[in-house]
Amino acid sequence: MLFKENNHRKGLAIFYLVAFFLLEILIITNNSVIFSIDHSIQNILGTAVSPFNTKIFSIITFLGSPVMDTFYLVLMMILFFKFKQRDASLWTGYILIGGNIISYLIKITVKRQRPLDKIIPASGFSFPSGHVFGTMLVIMTIIFLILPSLKKQSTRWIINGILIIWVIIVAISRVYLRGHFPSDVIGSALLAGAWWQCSKLLYFRYYDSLVKLLKLNNY
């Protein structure tokens, strides 16, 4: 099996789901507290705007874009399959396709407009952030499916720290460039956590059936 049993998994899934839907409701109802927090953070980052920072954050936002996140995940799928880890490859594909569908459906349902005065062009709706959502899926795949194969725990911790910092930087880049509100990127992180944990619950529930159906034991 890809994952170990965890008694806290259902609780984590509920926490992420509840937190996400509460935030979504606050955004849909144009809650004044969310509005105030969003604009306060935007104003703080606005003081850091410069041609150099804009260039750096533009590169970061490209590397964390949905197109690049899809590329990273597809590449991992291919590598998993090549190294006879068919179950990991299928899981990665499922997470990618299912996650993108859910994120898109939420976007067109909430229909939140993007911030004004965007520094670089951005189309579509604002909530949730596809950049942060996709980056979270990439990073969780690396942390839970790739890093456990590393023998040195210190190496795993260092890479974990780098990956977490990368998510934060991508999130900051989206707010700095005014492609998203801060609440958009927070919502994306919560949605990614909810999707990952709920997918794990489904994985444990239907693992035996999937093994027989897809003959995963042969790999």
Present the secondary structure layout:
Elements: H1 9-28, H2 32-46, H3 51-63, H4 66-82, H5 86-110, H6 130-146, H7 153-176, H8 182-214
Helix pairs in contact: 1-8, 3-7, 4-5, 4-6, 5-6, 6-7, 6-8
Question: How does this structure look, described?
Answer:
There is one protein chain. With 219 residues, the protein is an all-alpha fold. The protein has one domain (9-218). Helix content is 75%, strand content 0%. The protein is built from 8 helices and no strands. Helix 1 crosses helix 8 (182-214) and helix 3 (51-63) packs across helix 7 (153-176). The mean pLDDT is 90. The chain crosses the membrane at residues 12-37, 57-81, 88-110, 130-150, 157-177. It holds the Pfam family PAP2. It comes from Companilactobacillus formosensis. Residues 92-200 form the Phosphatidic acid phosphatase type 2/haloperoxidase domain. InterPro entries: PAP2/HPO, PAP2/HPO_sf.
